[in-house]
């Protein structure tokens, strides 16, 4: 029997994770989070159930809109801070306080 398991590699920025504020606008929730875990993991940890599929950034099922703030792509380290930009929750982490249309 052969099994496979896939997960997103963690971006190694060299800086320690820090506490951030996450605002989920449609859910009307504001919570504490951190800058290391994926936004999908953090939303689920706070009781939200966003749509998702592969958890690797491939299927785009977890895509939502960034309302404000900045996110870091966990695969490449690229930053995105453009309001209205679609992001994939499973491969994005907060790079400071942010708001999502979730």
Automatic annotation (TrEMBL):
GO function terms (MF aspect): 2 iron, 2 sulfur cluster binding
Pfam family, one: Fer2
Superkingdom of the source species: Bacteria
Signal peptide location: none
Start and end residues of each 2Fe-2S ferredoxin-type domain: 18-102
Matches recorded under CDD domains: fer2 (cd00207)
Gene3D superfamilies noted in UniProt: 3.10.20.30
Record protein name field: Stearoyl-CoA 9-desaturase electron transfer partner
Species this protein is from: Pseudomonas aeruginosa
